[in-house]
Amino acid sequence: MTPGLGNTLSSWLIAFPALFSIINPLGASLIFAQATEGRERREVVELARQVALNSLGIMLVSIWFGSWILGFFGISINALRITGGLVVASRAWVMLLQPETSEARKEKQALQGGRTVTTPDLRERAFFPLAMPFTVGPGSISVAIALSSSTPPHMPTADYYLGVSAAATTMAVVVAIVYAYAERVVAMLGVTGARIVSRLAALILLAIGVQILASGVEGFLIEALKQAKAA
């Protein structure tokens, strides 16, 4: 395996679990099935594809331009890591202890007043609210931006960004497949099974949030030591 391919694979292995945990497509599919209840199979598949493409666009913009946008406002990488880590960890904590709260929030985002979406053309809702904020919300965007700012010192930036972008693309493919077969996922997992998956994903996400937070704190400490030595 060439070094470039190895670096890309390593960054993919870092990014994909984080994105999968925060998006949680298996749990979200339960609500997606409610939002598309009574619709033709062809329409559901097309909607799932559109939602996945829109979600991919949001993730890629966050990965490639999120750090630059925040940097424009004078926010340092380490501050971004600490903030992103706190957001991710707090979201994971709620998902871990109160999965019902997360489900209720997503259901409110995906449905209109708790009712099945009745718009004649569901594609009108492929971006808002089904892609954002239902599938890729503030937490997912925070994870994407935090990942983009966490390039390991030993890894070329291009290889790292390629791997993270590949992870986002893989995540979009997973969303398209799981949403397209949401009814089967519901029948297979049920509410209890989905909550178990959500808690496992939340535990992984909590660890990732703590790791991102720790890297930000470490960065501030290293900068402080360098300034102290220079003085």
From TrEMBL:
Its main location: membrane. Keywords: Cell membrane, Membrane, Transmembrane, Transmembrane helix. The keyword Disulfide bond does not apply. The keyword tRNA-binding does not apply. InterPro entries: Multi_antbiot-R_MarC. The chain crosses the membrane at residues 12-33, 53-77, 126-148, 160-182, 202-222. It is a multi-pass membrane protein. It comes from the Bacteria. Signal peptide: none annotated. It is found in: Cell membrane. Belongs to the UPF0056 (MarC) family. This is UPF0056 membrane protein.
